[in-house]
Fold each of these.
Amino acid sequence: MSSREDEALARAAVTALTGQLALAPKPGLPDPRDLGARITHRDHRMLRWSAKALTPGLAAMAAVAWRTGEPTPGLRTELGAIGRCTEHSVRLAGGGHRGALWALGLLVAATALDPRAGARDVAATAKRIAAHTDKRAPRRPSRGSSVSAKYGAAGARGEARAGFPHVRRALDALAIARSAGATEEQARLDALLTVMSTLQDTELLHTAGPLGLRHVQAGARGVLAAGGTATEAGAAALAALDADLHARAWSPRGSAGLLAGALFLDSLPAPLSSRARAA
């Protein structure tokens, strides 16, 4: 891979993230309706701007993966170091996207290891990378890891070490909704709700506890059971869930980051794939 291909992967990942940000209504999550961050406390314009700060770090992750060539412990350590530097850059740009950076970083690196791989093979390679321990990671536990330990939730690390099952479920949901005639926005919202319906979101566990998490999961399942966002009943159920979560100030941020990962795998740059096949 060349530096141009590294940057193309990074741009594809950031485009997936900004595509997730553009969806509305997203229950409990920042979207274009909340420009002033009156409810979510995350200014949508700031989040779009800070998402661009991920590009150099993601390109560096692609480059180091291509140079390493295998999902080794050394690669995991280098990705962790790049990720921490990227988090610092994102904070300077306005903050946010930590969960998305974790998912997208692993998926970008896995794609760089084999640009010809399909989405599920990429997720399997990301699993192999995540299985290694980052020996240079800070010793202090993060909020997500503390919540995972308290409630026995898989958390972001567990999701990666399982091969991103919720990213794969989101990909399936995208395909099903599109084949049923849903618009692209409706298909993406259905994919988000599919993730929300079963993910043990550590952000929700932190703010709402297990009962709150189950409440959100049930609400997401209710929208899907009503036919999804492309139906009148599903759209009404989505609006009700959106109002409920905003009123409670509950935010399923983990689901949003995994949707970004699914959108990245769903839209890998065609030039990369064609060049790899021709090589």
Amino acid sequence: MSVKLIAIDMDGTLLNSQKKISAENIVAIQKASQAGIKIVLCTGRPKSGIVPYFEQLGLTDEEYIIMNNGCSVYNTKNWDLMVAEELTYDEIERLAQVCASYPEVCLTLTGDKSYYALADEVPDLVQYDAGLVFDTARAVDMADLKAEGELIFQAMYMAKKEYLDVFQAAVDGDLSQDFSTVRSQEYIYEVLPQGATKASGLRQLAEKLDIEPAEIMALGDAANDIEMLDFAGVSVAMGNATDDIKKRCRYTTSSNDDYGVAKAIYDYAL
């Protein structure tokens, strides 16, 4: 069965260690699109951290982007929001209470338009992360958040690794009962609406496009890619992925610094 859709993680996959897209990857993605294969960036990033990269790909057909680790799906023709999973204010208040006794941990929220820190002021680590997605974090309280009324897709607890390790060990057993949780980076522990993963977003999009899982190729390198890789019929681990990721996948390509996405497209899709 031929590949009709390619789901591509960004950090550690499409982007190299310098957070850039290689010319080799761009050419391969364009060839796949020209062959009629749908290109879907599938990432934990919010819209602000995706659009500048997507524009570099130079794709002319309507494509799709799964953002916020599966909480939102947009088309790229007019940036309509096709799928949305959101956190309620009650859930956000609960998440704030969970970290109240951990002053080193900051609760951040990704909305449809804004990057929030639920705090009196934005910690340097949070502002650093916001900068990686070409945004600026704003400090808000619950009253401000409710007044703005923005859709909140995901929450992220941020702290230095040693603090976040302790925090996650203490709270994950409880939170994972009611939310989808994942440690996406050493300084980020994510909390998403229950059932929301990259795979859930990809499944909903595939159904809309009438594409079977067996016709999907997915590429990834990290823990928040696991469900997506398990869902796709053609799963490809990056050369820089962990051994656990590689064992789960049908294939392994070269690393993100050695044009692994392009190699996988030529080897398994074209």
Amino acid sequence: MFEFITDEEERGQVGIGTLIVFIAMVLVAAIAAGVLINTAGFLQSKSQETGQQSSKQVSDRVQEVATVGNVSNNAVDFVNVTVTQGAGSGEIDLENTTVTWIGPSGTYQLIAHSDFDNTSDATGDVFTYDVVKDTDTSAPVLNDNDDRLQYIFDVSDFTGGQELAEGDEVTIKINTMAGATTSIRFTVPESLGQKEAVEL
């Protein structure tokens, strides 16, 4: 026996098929929209984080206030660099800064050591620091534009006894934990004479 399909049944089957396709399209679109929203949120958070890090690399740096050399036997044996926060900078911890000293005797990577009187227990070449001005006792953290801390470099300690002579040129690069770098360049005066200290 043959079954005859009427026009109404045929239209119903076509309508159900169309409905299934429509539902499938809606589900696919909903899943795609969810993926896009999640991806957009992830990209936004990553871009904000990257922007903040980039900003810190530019702004979270120290600013030189003064650089002075201590003169002994017509040579500079200590260099003291007084620093403050750079413009727009956040908190800077001097203990988490690293220093590259580029001088006539070579290049040295220096790390902070808090005990000025005893550097014998330190590993590697070191610089020390001292407080010049700190109203809220936050040292060694610079957290106010009025704070002044001092990097102290015992030149002969990390150069194997070689002090800075007249006319020597030095570059000091101070790198903060955020990745910002401050470069300080100076030349020892051509005549130290009977001076006890010189501005560099």
Amino acid sequence: MCLIVFDWQPAASEESGRALLTLSANRDEFLRRDAEPMHWWNDAPGVLAGRDLAGGGTWLGVSRDGRFAALTNYRAPGDMKPNAPTRGTLVSNFLAGEREAPLDYLQNVAREGHRYNGFNLLCGDLTRRELGWYGNRADAPPALLDAGVHGLSNSLLNTPWPKLVAQREALCDLIHADERPSLDVLIDTLRDPRIANDEHLPSTGISIERERVLSAAFIETPDYATRSTTALRVKPFARGLSLEIKERSDDDGSHRIVRPGEFERAFAFEIEA
């Protein structure tokens, strides 16, 4: 993923009307890199996620027992290790492996963080009501997140890049108007092609022309683009949690890319406490 905005409310209850987690995310990737859209994995039946066919991992997913994880790359073109391990397995290992508390898993990842190219990793156990973050380019250890609206792009958590600020504010506005906005509205809001003004662009070591096109929430270039948008909502109810997730993708699973992507998959299930 390259842009994630989310509202995390660990104290949410059925009576409060708030969702435990409301999230929307864009996956930006090279068009030549094949991936499978969101599905239940055959080799890890409890995992629901897309799959990167080059590295075998994923960018965002959930599990039947209430785990959640997502990853963004950290943009640092001058600090790329060509033989670094694939970052997508950091997500899939959390979802498919032996169940660990999010902070324990992130601390284990941090011990090997230097081996990877730059990343941000979100890991949550929704039944524990714990959501943690670790960035391997941050001068801070892994930590559990406080309640509130947060954002991740290709820098550290809540770094105020224009698209992150705009989409975080847009999510706040949506929730203010409707505590449980529809997944379609969350997806449509994140698919914003507007480019930031030059004076607001970050300087990450790429050309100003590239900074411009990457400043849009929804990216469209001949070789690199927003490949999918995912919306997720987790709500508390009497017996546990209900989870709804929807993905809009440019690939129906046959690797025939259609731009902009309009193929949709949606899933819903309950997680018992």
